[in-house]
Amino acid sequence: MKLFCAVIFLLSLASAAFAAEESVLARVTSYWADEGASVKYASTGRRLRAGHCAVDPKRIPYGSKIVFPDRACTAVDTGPAVISRKAARLCARTASQLKAIVVDRFFETKREAMAWMNANPEFMTLQVVSP
Asked: What is the pLDDT of residue 39?
C-alpha cells in the first residue's frame, strides 16, 4: 500500500512539472534588423538577437521558450501583426489554421530569414514552455 501511495505521489509531481508545456499551432513569420541599423530592440527593451521571437503576450508570456524544429527561441517581443494574427488569417486553408497564433522569429539578416522561411512550412506545431 505504501508503495502504491508513493507511486501516485510521484506521478502527481511529474504531471505538475509538465503542465507548463503546451503544443500550439502557429503561423510562423520572420523579421530581421534593418540594413542600416546595427542594433534592434524589442518592445520589452531587450536587444534582439538570433534566438528571439515576437508573440502575443496575452497568449504566450514573455520569457517563454518556443521550441522550433531547429532550435528553441525566447519570447521577448510583440507587434500589431502578431497580436491581430494577420498572417494566419490571410493564408489559412483550414479552420485550425485560421485560429492559429502567430510567432514572428527574429533573424540577424534578411538572407537568414528568407532561407529559413523557404525551408520550413508556414504553419507548424510548436512547443511552448512557460517561464
From this structure: 74
Positive/negative CA dihedral, 42, 30, 89, 65: negative
Q: Alpha-carbon distance 67 to 121, whole Å?
A: 15
Please tell me whether the overall predicted TM-score, pTM, comes out greater than 0.85 for this model.
no
Return the closest-CA partner of residue 69 out of 32, 108, 124: 124
Diameter over CA atoms, the chain: 69
Q: DSSP letters along 21-90, please?
A: EEEEEEEEEEEE--SS-S--B-TTSPBP-TTEEE--TTTS-TT-EEE-SS-EEEEEE--HHHHHTHHHHH
Cβ pair 101, 56 in contact under 8 A: yes
Kindly tell me if the per-residue pLDDT of 15 is higher than 60.
Answer: no
Domains and CATH numbers, the chain: 20-129 (2.40.40)
Query: 97-131: per-residue pLDDT in tens?
Result: 999 999 999 999 999 999 999 999 999 999 999 98
Distance CA 98, CA 86 (A): 10
